[in-house]
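## Example pair
The file below holds two records. Each record gives the amino-acid sequence first, followed by its structure token line.
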Amino acid sequence: MSINATLFVQAIVFAILVWFTMKFVWPPIAAALDERAKKVADGLAAADKAKSELSSANKRVEEELAKSRNETATRLADAERRAQAIIEEAKGKATEEGNKIVAAARVEADQQTVKAREVLREQVAVLAVKGAEQILRKEVNAGVHAELLARLKTEL
């Protein structure tokens, strides 16, 4: 065989191989490559979307944390103010109660002083009567001299 015929037959076989490859082998490979490229692109898009969502979620979390910190600080300040108000109110009530107790003690002391004076007046009157008995050497009738004794008590 001649080299030209061999070269010609090889060219025809090569053309048939190229045609067969392009018709039956290449489309599934191209489809698989396209599908893989699409999956990679979708994965990258999903990763970018997830990254942006993560960044958005982090911002929302930071905002909520700042909001809760502010709210906590506000509540603590309110609680502290309320505690101070309660303390002041308790101090005021305690002072008021103390003043009432002191006033009641003064009233009671005044009453006891008045009672003690009355008792002393009666004792002085009795002593005066006994002294008068001793001076007069006779018994003085307290019933008869009640008005005199009453006047004596008031003078004392």
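Second record, same layout:
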Amino acid sequence: MLTRTAKYIWQHLRYIPLWSALTYSKWRGFDTRARSLGNVFGWTMRWIPIARRRFDREVLRIYPDMPRADRLNLSRKMGQNMGRTLFEILHNTEFQARQDRFHISGPGLAVLEKAKADGKGAILVSGHFGQWEAVRAVLKHRGMETAGVYRRQSNRHYQRLLVRGIEQGGKPALTTGSNGTKAMVRHLRAGGFVAILLDEKTVDGEMMPFLGSDALTSVAAARLALKYDVPFMPVFGTRHNDSSDIDVEFEAPIAPTDPRTMTQTFNDNLSARILEKPDQWYWLLRRWKDMRR
């Protein structure tokens, strides 16, 4: 009983900083509120030792010679981008109304429009890069509502806010794991679209190169795309420097070959984008941790 009570209190305590940041600028304009939370996250990455050490551990794996001053600057910029992204996800209805801020390109949008007309599903793959929710915002605005896949949060407050934001962006909100996979299959077979972030490690994934180092990567999405003959399409929302303008890119679907080759093609694509704009990727995923050990 004491353990359950302590856990309940700890969840509240962990939620206070986010609640405070969201409440502080509640009556200001959308951009001002988004920038405020971004600044809070940027300050956290710059000055909180545990966050800075975790960031340095991952960045030095890829950039072993990066000077400390450059790492501090990169961590601050990453924090600002991720804070803005989180705010926009948690206020997804307002975010989706800002269609004039989304700059759309790529051949994939026409492919999705045809798939929708044919009653066929699609699997959209991206990563924790830029503002990935902009992709679903563009599709929902065009009558192609897209399910979002997320990892369940241990904190009940984060879980509640996250699910609400994801559902505002497009239903259904699907969890990772066996139950979520079954629901995803039903959704695909019914002609639905699904958006998945493939840069999270999974215990049942395969080791394959990502940013030049082997990382556990799930091939399940590519396997489903092959099984149900639906497009396996890289999509990205790249934020303009410290602004609410976002380039939403729908790339051509990856050629259907085999799950590992298709997933590696996506890994290479995302890696190139991260190397070009490292401040737009969330470096705290512990991407190279082998969960199978």
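Notes on the second record: Residues 2-24 form the longest helix (23 residues). The longest strand covers residues 232-239.
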